[in-house]
Amino acid sequence: MSVRAEDVADLVIRSRRAVLPEGEGPAAVAVRRGRIAGLHPYDAVLEAAEQVDLGDTALLPGLVDTHVHVNEPGRTHWEGFACATRAAAAGGVTTIVDMPLNSLPPTVNVAALTGKRSAAAGQCLVDVGFWGGAVPGNVKDLRPLHEAGVHGFKCFLSPSGVAEFPPLDVDGLRAAMVEIASFDGLLIVHAEDPELLAEPAGPGYAEFLDSRPGRSERRAVELVAALAGETGVRAHILHVSSALCLEPLARARREGVRITAETCPHYLTLTAEEVPRGATEFKCCPPIRTSANREQLWQGLADAVLSCVVSDHSPSTPDLKVPDFAAAWGGISSLQLGLAAVWTEASRRGHGLGQVVRWMAANPAALAGLDGKGAIAVGNDADLVAFDPDAGHTVDAATLHHRNPVTPYHGRTLRGVVRATWLRGRVVGDTPGGEFLRPSPAGARSPGPERATEERPSP
Fold first, then answer.
1. Which residues contact 295 (CB under 8 A, 6 or more apart)?
2. Which residues form the Amidohydrolase-related domain (predicted)?
3. Which residues face 129 on adjacent strands?
């Protein structure tokens, strides 16, 4: 019997460990025109132009990292779209959402968003979305940015570290929330109360940690939750490092407040006790805390108080990482390493690949309104990752694709290796094929991409 051309897949990938929404098991994933066309038994006889059998190597959906500072334009010597998206693909990340700072200008109006898209065009190896910024005086720019396709708006409650992106005070926060709620947008918040922050009393890590106590995060979370309840806005707390935030987050959710929260690989894997003297590659804000705090964050994930694990990839040039925690730039480069770092610690605690995929793919996709991303499901984009969960490797910063080889993971042995990454059914290589993304309209299956390259290759 002849096979109709429309029944021949472009690609079939088989794995005995395919991580599907309903669980992990053997499957054959058929891809046609860049989308998942069918899910079949592992040994099903399927016609395809290309067949890949991964055997016991796991097949995951491409990860979605909604917290990446690419820094281009303006600080491209810190990081840029070409190297950031290459690092993402190497780490199994097929979609990133770029933060509105530390680029110059920051993405606080439509002109800046247009400039950022122009800077990124033709460079991206994975799909890219953009956050807008909420800063003092730009309430009038929020709706136009929303209509131009940003996924939401980031604000700081404490100094951001760059003068061009100042924090909101309480009145400014409320005004931004009222405006964003009027079009059912999303506000994402760097939540530290500035009144509880101080300059470090010395150059060491202990002094730095004392200068940014966990109660500063908790008090800021309580403020955001109260104002979100008052205004009805959707709010999301970024990079939770302190377990003191878990109780007020859980309470707000029980009370019906529309609030979610994330944490990051470095808070789940690294601890204050292990930071070497002068090792400012470990510096970030809010800071890495104690091992006991780390275990409470893992419990917060298990309890679904924290819903996402994303990188907060915030690189700089090595010269800014001076060996003084009071003076060094605060930011951790981990875009390429997040999956392995999280899997290393998750597997030790009895969590499976399905839970890691939920935290690092499905939930971030939902947060950013990216229907069609984050799960191996019929109709979704064929963004897929071959991941060997049992292979170990020792991190060498010099081999990473980040522009600047600075990472606290250098020399650390991690479990799990990405063997291949597919974007819409094509292996990610050296040719840019990423697209710019917009949040999906309610009920839509597709994220409605714009082109991020001169021409999108036809499937």
1. none
2. 59-428
3. 97
Residue in 196, 220, 224, 222 with CA at minimum distance from that of residue 210: 196
The bridge status of strand 426-427 relative to strand 93-98 is unpaired
Tokens representing residue 404 in the block: 């600047």
Check residue 271 and report its DSSP letter: -
Note whether residue 30 is domain-resident.
no
C-alpha 37/C-alpha 377 separation (Å) is 9
Total domains in the chain come to 1
Cis peptide before 105 (omega within 30 of 0): yes
Token couple for 388 = 């060997």
DSSP 35: E
Q: What is the pLDDT of residues 202-212, one digit of tens each?
A: 999 999 999 99
Query: How far is residue 191's CA from residue 217's CA, in Å, rounded to a whole number?
Result: 6
Q: Three-class SS of residue 143?
A: helix
CA atoms within 13 A on the CB side of 381: 29
Would you say residue 130 lies in a domain?
A: yes
At residue 218, the pLDDT reads 98
Are 349 and 298 in contact by the 8 Å Cβ rule? The answer is yes
The answer to whether the CB of 116 falls within 8 A of the CB of 102 is no
188 lies in which domain range? 62-371+389-414
**Other C-beta atoms lying within 10 Å of the C-beta of residue 299:** 13
Residue located via tokens 């104002």: 227
- Give the pairing type, strands 426-427 and 308-309: unpaired
Q: Identify the pLDDT of residue 120.
A: 98
Tell me what the pLDDT averaged over the chain comes to: 94
Give the Cα-Cα-Cα angle 263, 265, 270 (nearest 5 degrees): 110
Judge whether 454 lies within some domain. no
pLDDT of residue 324: 98
Q: What is the DSSP letter of 451?
A: E
* 458: confidence class by pLDDT, cuts 50, 70, 90: very low
273, amino acid identity: E
Structure tokens at 166: 């100042």
Burial 100-109 (b: 16+ CB within 10 A, else e): bbbbebbbbb
Share of the chain above pLDDT 90, in %: 94
Q: Cβ distance 96 to 71 under 8 Å?
A: no
Question: Which backbone phi and psi does 320 adopt, to 5 degrees?
Answer: -85, -10
| CATH number of the domain bearing residue 84 | 3.20.20.140
Q: Is residue 291 part of a domain?
A: yes
Short-list 6, 9, 112, CA closest to 51: 9
Distance CA 366, CA 396 (A): 33
